[in-house]
């Protein structure tokens, strides 16, 4: 509730004595109460425990307010747009490269790519080789696009403090299977 107040003044968070308790108070609102039993469990004095907790509360609220300030959110949105722009640019370049590569090498007029012949018998025709290479190139393109998305999605989620935990979860969901597949291929 302190964090959600429109204005927070750290100096207004104080420790007051009241009815045998030490209360952490913000503008006449009791936030927490410390007893001598709490201090015994923390192996410290009640005053020291209350002051430590008040300091922790102040620092965490100031830190989170600074992280979620309008300036930082605008900066994060700009970073997100930059990441999306780079991803779109990479996808565009990848499509152009694969289209150029296919146009250059995978044409029936390609003089370097002939069918496989044994004497006068054509064992594998040129069009079958072209179709096979086209599928291999398409598969390579899909793998590269998948790796791009697997990298960009967690990166985009890691920009904002509220979604940083999701970033780790998504990274584990996406990369753990890829690692397991890679390790299985290598061990095979």
Describe what you observe in this structure.
The protein is α+β, with helices and mostly antiparallel strands. The chain is built from five helices and five strands. The protein has helices at residues 36-41, 46-67, 70-105, 126-157, 164-187; strands spanning 13-18, 21-26, 29-34, 116-118, 121-124. The protein has a three-stranded antiparallel β-sheet. A hairpin with a 2-residue loop joins strand 4 (116-118) and strand 5 (121-124). Helix 4 runs antiparallel to helix 5. The longest helix is centred in the middle third of the chain and has 36 residues, at 70-105. It is elongated.
Care to give the gist of this entry?
The protein is an alpha+beta fold. The chain has helices at residues 36-41, 46-67, 70-105, 126-157, 164-187, and strands at 13-18, 21-26, 29-34, 116-118, 121-124.
Short key terms for the protein model shown above:
188 residues; alpha+beta; three-stranded antiparallel β-sheet; 5 helices; 64% helix; 13% strand; elongated
Strand order of the largest sheet: 1-2-3
Structural class by secondary-structure content: alpha+beta
Q: For the report, how would you describe the main beta sheet?
A: 3 strands, antiparallel
Distance between the termini: 56 Å
- What percent of the residues sit in helical stretches (DSSP H or I)? 55-70%
Radius of gyration: 31 Å
């Amino acid at each position: 509730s302190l964090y959600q107040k429109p204005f927070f003044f750290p100096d207004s968070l104080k420790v007051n004595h009241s009815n045998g308790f030490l209360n952490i108070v913000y503008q006449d609102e009791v936030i927490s109460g410390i007893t001598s039993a709490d201090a015994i469990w923390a192996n410290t004095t009640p005053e020291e425990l209350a002051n430590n907790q008040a300091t922790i509360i102040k620092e965490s609220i100031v830190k989170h307010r600074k992280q979620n300030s309008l300036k930082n959110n605008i900066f994060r949105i700009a970073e997100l747009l930059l990441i999306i722009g780079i991803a779109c640019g990479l996808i565009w370049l990848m499509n152009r490269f694969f289209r150029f590569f296919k146009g250059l090498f995978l044409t029936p007029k390609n003089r370097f790519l002939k069918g496989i012949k044994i004497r006068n018998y054509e064992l594998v025709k040129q069009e079958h080789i072209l179709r096979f290479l086209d599928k291999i190139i398409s598969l390579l393109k899909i793998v590269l696009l998948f790796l791009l998305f697997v990298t960009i999605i967690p990166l985009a989620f890691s920009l904002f403090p509220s979604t940083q935990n999701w970033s780790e979860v998504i990274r584990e969901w996406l990369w753990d299977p890829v690692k397991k597949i890679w390790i299985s291929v290598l061990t095979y």
